[in-house]
Amino acid sequence: SWCERGMVSLIDALFGVHDLTFQVVAILLWLAEAFVSLLIVKRVPYTEIDWSTYMQQVALYDKGERNYSRIEGSTGPCVYPAGHLALFSLLSTLTNGGKDIRVAQYFFVVFYLINLALVFRLYYKSKRIAPFVLVFLTLTGYRIHSIFVLRLFNDPLAMMLFYLAANCFISQSWTIGCVFYSLAVSIKMNVLLFAPALFFLLLTNQGYAGTIWNIGICGLIQLGLALPFLSRDPWSYITRSFDLSRVFMFKWTVNWRFLPEEIFLDKRLHLALLVLHVISVFLFAFFMWFRTHGGLKRAIEHLNHGIRTRFGPSEAMYALFTSNLMGIVFARSLHYQFYSWYFHQLPFLLFYKTRSINGKIPLYSIAVKSVVLLVVEYAWNTYPSTVLSSSLLHLAHLYIVGHLLLTRDAIEKPVKSKLF
């Protein structure tokens, strides 16, 4: 009947992959998010954590201090690259030295909405995501709203620039994308977790010369921003802004609460996690990435014969997001603001193959994945973290990795790569 056909059409519109429906849902949710974010700023009290420290550090920077060992705040020294100081110096100027907190929050509302629009575009361009998935990027993100507009961390700003870079990458604007990527790294070095996937994307799409050029662009941006500090005291800048040996405090950990503190602080655990991280990225790179083009190995073989391979947006996003995920799964410690590192990527990794067919909704699959995302949200919203919350977070990560391994498309036979 016409009623049944209408219901099937509605289901396919929301649970299938349709451009028009996606655009309508994205616009409505974006507008709703604008309203909700402004309401949060208006009604929910601001929480001071790091903003005042950022402003204290910036005040020293604005007075001309270029020795990184002397740039400190009430909660400690500056441990971020030079782009962090440059960005928050601008925000300090726009907010009366950081005193106009409400103005700063409105700026972060704008950043949040830009970030959301960039993520929506990535999902849209992937042509793999049904409109219903967008709900998980908005209505379930209690902690993400807090990170952006109530606590004013630098993490989401670094991620906003990364998503801008990723949009450039999927549009084949590699050099511009690398500029934004390097700027993101200059705010917080967690963005380096995407570097393995980006390297192979550059290599297979741009060839050896193009890869060297774009990596050089990234390096020059880092050097340019850091030059005032490097010329004064290079060692303090390098050891402070890119400190890989930094020891995290046990009381703030989200993911390792179930361990005794002495084990959490043990360097052998840190080394083991680093080894597992490297191994997992290697395994994903050579067995999971770019499978629609025969895998990374075949793409490199083509490159050695002078043939570059252009991967579609979904392949690029899969590689970038899983590269980042492996770093988070094996992180030495996760703090609450780190949720912004991967919150907007998890729905893609879980739902990129979930859609209705002829009006039949895969309800069981959607229900299980929804529970996993809610478990992740629960773990990140439990403060302080508990043995239960941190254990559940690891179980959720384990499910996501297992799901990726079990549902990835079978590697295809050799296909003709595009020569350009």
TrEMBL record:
The chain crosses the membrane at residues 20-41, 103-123, 129-150, 157-174, 180-204, 211-230, 269-290, 361-380, 386-406. InterPro entries: Glycosyltransferase_ALG3. It is found in: Endoplasmic reticulum membrane. Keywords: Endoplasmic reticulum, Glycosyltransferase, Membrane, Transferase, Transmembrane, Transmembrane helix. Pathway: Protein modification; protein glycosylation. GO terms for cellular component: endoplasmic reticulum membrane. It catalyses: an alpha-D-Man-(1->2)-alpha-D-Man-(1->2)-alpha-D-Man-(1->3)-[alpha-D-Man-(1->6)]-beta-D-Man-(1->4)-beta-D-GlcNAc-(1->4)-alpha-D-GlcNAc-diphospho-di-trans,poly-cis-dolichol + a di-trans,poly-cis-dolichyl beta-D-mannosyl phosphate = an alpha-D-Man-(1->2)-alpha-D-Man-(1->2)-alpha-D-Man-(1->3)-[alpha-D-Man-(1->3)-alpha-D-Man-(1->6)]-beta-D-Man-(1->4)-beta-D-GlcNAc-(1->4)-alpha-D-GlcNAc-diphospho-di-trans,poly-cis-dolichol + a di-trans,poly-cis-dolichyl phosphate + H(+). Its main location: endoplasmic reticulum. GO terms for molecular function: dol-P-Man:Man(5)GlcNAc(2)-PP-Dol alpha-1,3-mannosyltransferase activity. It is an enzyme of class 2 (transferase). It is a multi-pass membrane protein. Its EC number is 2.4.1.258. It holds the Pfam family ALG3. This is dolichyl-P-Man:Man5GlcNAc2-PP-dolichol alpha-1,3-mannosyltransferase. It comes from Pristionchus fissidentatus.
